[in-house]
Amino acid sequence: MTPEVKQRIDNLLKENKILVFMKGTKLMPQCGFSNNVVQILNTLGVPFETLDVLEDYEIRQGIKEYSNWPTIPQIYINGEFVGGSDIAIELYQSGELQQMVEVALAS
Question: How many folded domains does the chain comprise?
Answer without folding.
Answer: 1
